[in-house]
Specification:
CATH architecture of the largest domain in chain A: Alpha-Beta Barrel
Helix content of chain A: 25-40%
Low-confidence stretches of chain B: 1-6, 334-341
Number of strands of chain B: 9
Number of strands of chain A: 17
Helix content of chain B: 25-40%
Oligomer: heterodimer
Radius of gyration of chain A: 21 Å
Shape of chain B: globular
Structural class of chain B: alpha/beta
CATH topology of the largest domain in chain A: TIM Barrel
CATH superfamily of the largest domain in chain A: Metal-dependent hydrolases
Strand order of the largest sheet of chain B: 7-6-5-8-9
Strand order of the largest sheet of chain A: 7-8-9-10-11-14-15-16
CATH class of the largest domain in chain A: Alpha Beta
Largest sheet of chain B: 5 strands, parallel
Number of domains of chain A: 2
Low-confidence stretches of chain A: none
Largest sheet of chain A: 8 strands, parallel
Shape of chain A: globular
CATH class of the largest domain in chain B: Alpha Beta
Mean pLDDT of chain A: 96
Mean pLDDT of chain B: 91
Order of helices and strands of chain B: HEHEHHEHEHEHEEHEHHHEHH
Strand content of chain B: 5-15%
């Protein structure tokens, strides 16, 4: 049987996994990358002889499909907010071809059969690759460890109680130790619940003017410090979800210096927006905008700058969306009652391009942070267009 | 002005030697907070309230200017003086006043705030006065209904009519606001009265000091007062805060703060931060004493101070009716003109 070949002609191929940023044609077929041909004229002529299906991508960028380590698909249990189908359609629209689904669904993803259910549902309804994340503790209750090795065998790529921290330090230490068996990272939503104490936005100048209860930066910092200490003690693999404060970036940097197996992600919204957005000041929005309610909260411009610096110097490994959709009912209400979360899959790249436009990040670096960098964190076969790799790619009109 | 407009980054302030702002009224529809008010609008309300206070002194205090209008007080949190004074203000002006009491928990389980206010409007409310335990609640509904929304206190955030009545009382007693030294003392962190007064006092040119224990002051206010929208001084110790004050405004301390671990005990708080006769004599012998109520006598304020010669606390309550009459009159007057066009 002859594999049908598709040739993307005339585009700028940006694939940081191969150090490529040049004009090159990409030939795909049978779900794989078959050829990369530098020099578009020659390639075009060769194509005619070959009978390849031609897609003209002149003036456009071709890159590996984006990889999101932190997506809430909400199914099962919260299908009014999102389903595997709608979430993966959003992913495809936003350039993401691989999403890792967080397990804080209802029921939570606690067992191998739960993981298999996600894999099956994604096969039936998903528009992009869906890789399940299992819980660290059963029901995310923070009491007993979930059967992580079983889930890993069924396809779980990481473990997380995301939505809430693992409060018990001893249990967290055991989970990290156990990650040596599963070979999969423990992803912590690092916040100290006592310091969060019902806070709804960053504890700072804006919260103090708006009279909103603050989530102090140290709520994240003490949890990050604890987690790094536990990862160091156990030799386990720690991944920190949505790092949001300057001091947390410093702590990760110190951890890496000491050889701790710690990785970290930052979200597009923490890289662009600040707590000022909640007040509306300077961004032309009304105050108490519940679309800006998110955990961890939007921080200050100094935190934002530190996150960016951490991304550029390798302290923060990658960008992840923390796509967390809600219904309008969940958001059209008082700020304290609004569900925390920002839908990020469709807007992530557009928002991040603002960083490129203002010169704060190079375009190929941005592509790396959305492709091979996250893939390496979870050791996924994704984020690269090397020959033989899955033909998951995105075409961008910059 | 609408709620969707940007908020000012700093309060435009009046200085002590500048001429008093000219009264002005811009057909404002909602009263959410004083942050987007011009000094002239504040003066307009205070001047109108002077006339309203004369009405209240009549043998039969009754006007017909709001006849046919319906004012609903929608209170999601308990209140005595604010709700009653709005109702009295509405009735003196000839409006029908209706009270709706709800609890925040019923909102969580059932009808949304927006649906509730839409319902009130459908029933015929022209003005909805809202009290809500959560900061920002009036902004959820403002400009999404035709009724005027008046913020009767939202969470820790704002209580603009309290600030206006405080400004009225202060001006009535001292003849001016610009240049007056005001010390706001107590649980600033949780106080909507403090925040709205900061906007109002700053816009009118008062010199404000806020004071409270570090755990009851908002984060970073002590370290970086220059980042705030008001030109204020922030003190953690009561003596320097009170020195030379013309007005000391004590804030209520809720006893729950002790259980929340914010203060070691109500007793110690009272000893360190209570407004006592001795502290006044030493540091601000001529100061007026204000309190937004309800008072915890013996905690944030000593009984002899609360009821002493310097206290204008009862005046504040009476003035609250006049100020709310002025506001309701100005708000619905705007509506009436629109209807006539």
């Amino acid at each position: 049987m002859v594999t049908e070949r598709t040739r993307l002609v005339g585009g700028r191929l940006v694939d940081p996994s191969q150090g490529m940023d040049e004009l090159a044609d990409v030939v795909v077929g049978g779900g794989r990358v078959l050829e990369i041909v530098r020099g578009s004229e020659r390639s075009r002529r060769a194509a005619a002889a070959n009978g390849d299906k031609i897609v003209d991508v002149s003036g456009l960028v071709v890159a590996p499909g984006f990889v999101d380590l932190h997506t809430h698909l909400r199914e099962p249990g919260f299908e009014d907010k999102e389903t595997i189908e709608t979430g993966t359609r959003a992913a495809a629209a936003g350039g993401f071809t691989t999403v890792c689904a967080m397990p804080n669904t209802n029921p939570t993803i606690d067992t191998a059969s739960d993981v298999e259910w996600i894999v099956g549902a994604a096969r039936r309804h998903g528009r992009v690759r869906v890789l399940p994340i299992g819980t660290i503790t059963r029901g995310e209750k923070g009491q007993e460890l979930s059967e992580m090795a079983d889930m890993a065998n069924a396809g779980a790529v990481a473990f997380s109680d995301d939505g809430q921290p693992v409060k018990n330090a001893r249990l967290m230490r055991n989970a990290l130790a156990y990650s040596r068996v599963t070979g999969r990272p423990i992803v912590d939503h690092a916040e100290d619940a006592d310091l969060v104490d019902g806070g709804v936005m960053h504890d700072g100048r804006v919260a103090s003017i708006l009279g909103l209860r603050g989530v102090p930066a140290e709520a994240e910092e003490v949890a990050v410090a604890r987690d790094i200490a536990l990862a160091r003690a156990t030799g386990g693999r720690l991944h920190l979800a949505h790092v949001s404060t300057a001091a947390a970036v410093d702590l990760v940097r110190i951890g890496k210096t000491h050889g701790v197996a710690v990785t970290a992600e930052a979200t597009p919204h923490h890289l662009w927006m600040t707590d000022e957005w909640v007040s509306g000041t300077g961004v032309g929005m009304p105050p108490f905008n519940t679309n800006c309610r998110v955990n961890p909260p939007l921080r200050t411009d100094a935190d934002r700058a530190a996150l960016l610096e951490g991304l550029l110097d390798g302290t923060i490994d990658c960008i992840a969306t923390d796509h967390a959709p809600h219904t309008s009912i969940d958001k059209d209400c008082e700020f304290d009652q609004a569900a925390p979360g920002i839908s990020g899959l469709e807007t992530a790249f557009g928002l991040l391009m603002r960083l490129v436009e203002v010169g704060q990040i190079e375009f190929p670096t941005l592509i790396r942070l959305l492709t091979i960098a996250p893939a390496q964190v979870f050791r996924l076969d994704a984020g690269s267009l090397r020959i033989g790799a899955p033909a998951d790619l995105v075409v961008i009109d910059p | 002005m609408t709620a969707t407009q940007q908020r000012p980054i700093r309060a435009a302030t009046t200085t002590a030697d500048a001429p008093a702002p000219t009264p002005v009224w811009k057909g404002r529809r909602n009263v959410l907070d004083l942050d987007d008010w011009e000094p002239g609008e504040i003066v307009q309300v205070l001047d109108s309230a002077v006339a309203m206070k004369r009405v209240l002194a009549r043998p039969i205090p009754k006007l017909a200017v709001l006849r046919g209008k319906t004012v609903v007080t929608a209170f999601y949190e308990s209140s005595t003086r604010t709700r009653i004074s709005f109702e009295v203000a509405a009735k003196v002006l000839g409006a029908d006043a209706v009270n709706m009491t709800a609890t925040a928990s019923s909102v969580t389980k059932g009808e949304s705030l927006l649906d509730t206010v839409r319902t009130l409007q459908a029933i015929g409310a022209d003005v909805v006065v809202m009290r809500h335990p959560q900061s920002g609640a009036p902004w959820v509904v403002a400009d999404r209904v035709n009724a005027s929304i008046v913020n009767g206190g939202d969470g820790w955030h704002a209580h603009p009519t309290q600030a206006l009545l405080d400004l009225f009382t202060l001006r009535e007693r001292l003849g001016r606001i610009a240049g007056v030294k005001v010390t706001i003392l107590g649980d600033v962190l949780h106080s909507r009265v403090a925040r709205s007064n900061l906007w109002g006092l700053a816009k009118m040119g008062a010199e404000v000091t806020v004071c409270g224990p570090p755990t009851l002051l908002p984060r970073d206010w002590v370290a970086d007062p220059g980042s705030l929208p008001w030109p204020i001084r922030v003190e953690e110790r009561v003596e320097p805060a009170m020195d030379g004050a013309d007005v000391v405004m004590a804030l209520r301390l809720q006893r729950e703060r002790q259980h929340a671990g914010l203060i070691p005990s109500v007793r110690e708080y009272s000893r360190l931060y209570g407004l006592t006769e001795e502290r006044l004599r030493r540091h601000a012998p001529d100061a007026l004493v204000m309190h937004p109520g309800p008072m915890n006598e013996g905690v944030e304020i000593a009984p002899d101070v609360a009821h002493g010669a310097r206290s204008v606390i009862e005046d504040q309550v009476t003035n609250g009716v006049a100020v709310r009459m002025a506001l309701l009159y100005l708000l619905t007057g705007g509506t009436a003109r629109l209807d006539g066009e």
